[in-house]
Amino acid sequence: MSAQRVLGRLFPPLDQKLALRADHWSGGTARVATRLGLQTKSFDLAAAGFSDAVGCRISGDSVARLTEEWGQRVEEQRNAEAVVANQPGQRGERLGVRRLEEVAPITTQANISTDGAMLLVREEGWKEVKVVAISAVQTQPASARASTSPSRRDVDVLIELREHSYQAGLWDADTMALHQYAEGLRRGLDYCPKRSSVDDGALWIKRITDLNYPGVPQIVDLSHAADHLWAVANAVHGDQSPAAKTWAEQQLDHLWNDQVAQVVSELRGLDLTQASWPAIVREAPEYFRTNQERMRYAHFRTQGRSIGSGTVESAANTIVRHRRRQPEHGWARYNAQAMLAGLSELHSERFDYTWLRLSKN
User: Fold this and answer.
1) Are residue 162 and residue 204 in the same domain, yes or no?
2) pLDDT of residue 96
3) Do 208 and 116 share a domain, yes or no?
4) Distance of CA 306 to the CA centre of its chain
5) Contact (Cβ atoms closer than 8 angstroms) between residue 186 and residue 103
6) For a Cys staple, 205 with which of 56, 199, 222, 350, CB 3.0–4.6 Å?
7) What local confidence, expressed as pLDDT, does residue 24 receive?
8) CA-CA distance, 129 to 116, in Å (whole number)?
9) For position 152, what pLDDT does the model report?
């Protein structure tokens, strides 16, 4: 029996009988190797883990090839879906017909957080990977808190973010906007009745979130605001001094109680223009002045909204820094983008779902 040519390769009948792919790996073998290639810090470690688990040998290069090829297919799919999601309304398009298939839609309350993390790209230097995290929000009574240590949050409802999904890529802000919106459609945000967005206050994030989710409350992450206040306190009153601690805690109390104008007034009364001080100190008065509407923390807390962006910062660690940071020459852009696409699906708990979808194509 003669060999059949598939995708430019000879595909022997025995391979067909054993359900092997054109690269001579079985679908199950390729799936396990690809998952390990995404989960493990290096392809060589993934190959060793594969050999231990499956009982047959595979090289790190083979794991890299399988993982990056699958990631590239994910990248092509998400780019195509971003185009579909963002195209203008089409003649004959029926109201209510979903442009993208929903996966774990959020039906009650959702949070959107967007951020960036640096990645070394070969022949380009350090570039920003933009990341969006979309999460379901669950609230519980204050009595559900496990901590016994006194906190400003003691009387607030307990807010938990869960069922996260992510998109990460080497994109400019406008391309990130396309993927932010597409991921929102996958999670059903266009029908979710209560939504908010928490981020670090970057203008590009505010711009694209306003574009995709007009009217959705945008909130500056409290920890980022606190970082600015502590930087000012340490610069003006002495690093880690009692006076610095007293001043910073006073300003944090103002923030907590929606007295942002008081913080702005305090900052304006200080001379923060010294060239030797870092930008975070010199820019603090303007940072708080322009973000007053997004720092109404008491108001947002009474509405049961999250005021922290830890989910997207955690995603930056797990998707970008854990698996993608490499020394010396860095990653080729093509391979990095493929890996970021695959890692987005892995950490969104959609690896098996996406594998099956792509296997049918």
Assistant:
1) yes
2) 77
3) yes
4) 16
5) yes
6) 199
7) 61
8) 5
9) 61
For residues 239 and 210, state if they share a domain. no
d(CA 95, CA 190): 13
Helix %, strand %, coil % for the chain, to 5? Answer: 50, 15, 30
Give yes or no: residues 16 and 51 share one domain.
yes
Q: Is residue 293 part of a domain?
A: yes
Instruction: Give the residue ranges of the chain where pLDDT is below 70.
Output: 1-24, 142-155, 322-329
The residues with which 251 forms a beta bridge, in sequence order, are none
Q: Note whether residue 104 is domain-resident.
A: no
DSSP for 284-352, please give it.
HHHHHHHTGGGG-HHHHHHTT-----HHHHHHIIIIIIHHH--STT-B-HHHHHHHHHHHHHHHTT-HH
How far, in Å, CA of 315 to CA of 344, rounded?
A: 9
Given a contact cutoff of 8 angstroms between Cβ atoms, the answer to whether 134 and 184 are in contact is: yes
Residue 124 and residue 207 in one domain: yes
User: What tens digit of pLDDT does each residue of 218-265 get?
Assistant: 999 999 999 999 999 999 999 999 999 999 999 999 999 999 999 999
In a domain, 210, yes or no: yes
DSSP letters for 8-50 = TEEE-HHHHHTTB-TTS-BHHHHHHHHHHHHHSSSHHHHHHHH
The answer on 294 and 176 residing in a single domain is no
Q: Angle at Cα 293 formed by Cα 291 and Cα 295, nearest 5°? A: 70
Q: What are phi and psi of 165, to 5 degrees?
A: -135, 155
The total number of structural domains that make up the chain: 3
Residues 243, 291: one domain?
A: yes
Query: 124 and 213 in one domain?
Result: yes
**Predicted local confidence at residue 264, as pLDDT:** 96
